Amino acid sequence: MYKVRQLNPSEALLGLPSPVSFSIWWNGGSILGLLLGLQILTGLFLSMHYTADMTNTFASVIHIIRDIPGGWLFRNLHANGASLFFVFLYLHIGRGLYYQSYITQPHTWMVGVTIFLVSMGTAFVGYVLPWGQMSFWGATVITNLISAVPYIGNPAVEWVWGGFSVGQSTLNRFFSLHFIMPFLIAGLSALHLIFLHEKGSTNPLGEMNHVSKVPFHPYFTWKDFVGFLVVGMMFVSLGFFYPFILGDPENFNEASSMVTPVHIQPEWYFLFAYAILRCIPNKLGGVIALACSVVILYVLPASANNKIIPSSFTPIYQFIFWGLLSVFLILTWLGACPIEEPYITLAVPMTILYFLFYLILVMTPTFWIKLIS
C-alpha cells in the first residue's frame, strides 16, 4: 500500500497546475501583490515621521523630504507607487474583461472588484494626508458629494468631516483609515487567491481543464520575477528622475481654506469617474452616475451561463472591448480638462457610450453566438 503524502501550503502553491499558454498579462496579480507590500513598507516608515496635526502636517512632509535620511526616496516611492498600483490594477481588470474572467470565475471577480473599491478609498484618504492645496480642496469637493443623498446627506457629511468643514478631525480619521485599509486589501487579496486556486486559472481560450497545465514553479515564478524587474525599473525611473510627473503642482502649496485652486481635480486614476460626475448637471444624478461607473463591474458576472467564446475568435467582442477602453481613456483626459466648452459637451456622449458598452458586455455569450451565426 502506498501512502499519499499531504502537501503543505507552500508546496501546494508552488505546484499549482497552471496553463502553459499564460501570457505576460497574467503577471498582473503577482505585480500588484509586490506593489501592495512596497506601499505598506514605505508607508510604515513615512508614518514614523508624519505628523497628523493640521498646523504642522505640511511642514512634517517637507521635513521628511529634506531632513530625514532617505526620506525623499521613501516619499517619492510611496506617492508614485500608488500610481503604479492603479496602472497595474487597471491592466489586471482589463485583462479580466478581455478574457471574460467574470464568466469563468465570478467569485474571484467579485472579490477583485471589492479590492478595487477599497483601493480607491485608500488612495483617496491618502491623497489628503500631505495637506497641500489640491489635497485639501479635493477632499472638500469629493466628501461634499455625500450631501446629495436625500435626508441624511448633510448630517453624514458633518459626521465624515468631524465638524462643519474639512479640518483636524478629518485629517485624524483619514490618517487612521489610510493606515488600516491596506491590511484590509491584503486580506481581500488572500480571499481572491483562495477563490482563484479553488477552480484554477483560465488560459486565453477560457478553458478550465488540467490537460495542458504545468506546475507553477519554476516556470511562472521566473516569469513573475521578470515582471518584478520591470516594475523595479519603473520605480527607479519615477523615484529618481521623474518624481513629480504624476502629481499636481498645487500640492506644493500648503492647504488654505481662503484660496481656491483654479481647477480642482483628483488624481489621474479617478479622472474618468470625475468626468462622468461633472457632465451631469443634477448633483444627485452625478453622484449616482459616479458610483455606477465603478459598481457596474459587479453586474458583469450576471452574464455568466457557463459558456464562453474566446475574444480572439469574436471580432464584435473585441470591438466592444477596445471601444470601452478608448472611451475610458477619453474620459480620463476630459476629467483633467477645465470645466468649459467643448469638454463638458464632449463628456456627455462619452458617458453614454461608457455605460452602453458595459450593458453590451453583460449580454450573455448566447447573444454573440446568435449574432455571428
Topology, number of strands: 2
Biggest β-sheet: strands ordered side by side in the sheet? 1-2
What is the C-alpha radius of gyration, as a whole number of Å?
A: 22 Å
Average of the residue pLDDT scores = 85
Largest sheet properties? 2 strands, antiparallel
Binding site for heme b b566: 92, 192
Subcellular location: Mitochondrion inner membrane
GO biological process, one term: mitochondrial electron transport, ubiquinol to cytochrome c
Main location: mitochondrion
Summarize the structure in words.
With 373 residues, the chain is mainly α. It contains 15 helices and 2 strands. Strands 1-2 form a two-stranded antiparallel sheet. It starts with 8 loop residues before the first helix and ends with a helix. The model has no long low-confidence stretch (mean pLDDT 85).
Features:
single chain; 373 residues; mainly alpha; Cytochrome Bc1 Complex, Chain C; Helix Hairpins; 2 domains; two-stranded antiparallel sheet; 2 strands; 2% strand
